[in-house]
Design brief:
alpha+beta; Lambda Exonuclease, Chain A; 6 helices; 37% helix; globular
Length: 202
């Protein structure tokens, strides 16, 4: 249901939940409506992803930040937006020498010449949080790929990107507040690695 507007209420969505939605919208239904846990601790990538938070505190990429034009940074900022019904912890907020700001996010991943939609959408949402809380323009974000020698990829945000991210939030809120059972992902390959595959009705 596109363009329905933000659903009213006190529900707030995290950018991490958006990643689950992009994998398959039904994850939101099973996790947030039926309250069936994923048991994600058993998944290798999730465990390694959590290790990034320990890793980033021990690695200094200050020399790379200077190349980005960073004049100030804030680390692990927890922000919320009543306007968009989102909240989350941003790894780093970079304040740049052109007067704008940008989120920087660490990922336990290799850079393979493209930025996945999940990463970009998450970064766009962090940008919305920064803009609302710090009243500063946010035009781009940065991803640090820890498995590619801390390669930093710049992501430019467009109005279309922002509208798309907001629409995803609207869809998630509809599932959560209206107990709506959404269509499954169109990618059948994802079903093989899905923890809900035995209870998901196609």
């Amino acid at each position: 249901m596109k363009g329905a507007g933000i659903v009213s209420g006190s529900v707030s969505v995290t950018p991490s939940l958006v990643i689950e939605y992009l994998f398959c919208p039904r994850f939101i239904y099973f996790m947030e409506v039926l309250k069936i846990p994923q048991h994600e601790d058993r998944r290798y990538k999730v465990q390694k992803g959590r290790e990034v938070h320990k890793y980033k505190s021990s690695v200094n990429i200050e020399y790379k930040r200077k190349k980005l034009g960073v004049v100030k940074k804030k680390i692990e900022q927890e922000l919320a937006s009543k306007k968009y019904h989102i909240h989350g912890v941003i790894d780093e907020i970079l304040f740049l020498n052109d007067g704008t700001a940008a989120p920087l996010d660490y990922k336990f991943a290799e850079y393979k010449d493209k930025v996945f939609k999940t990463y970009k959408t998450q970064s766009v949402l962090y940008g919305l949080l920064i803009k609302e809380n710090y009243l500063v323009d946010v035009r781009k974000g940065f991803i640090v790929y820890t498995r590619s020698r801390d390669h930093i990829e710049e992501i430019i945000f467009s109005d279309k990107d922002r509208r798309g991210a907001i629409t995803i939030i609207e869809d998630i809120l509809r599932i959560m507040e209206k107990n709506f059972f959404p269509k499954a992902t169109k990618s059948g390959r994802r079903c093989f690695d899905c923890c809900y595959r035995t209870i998901c009705i196609k």
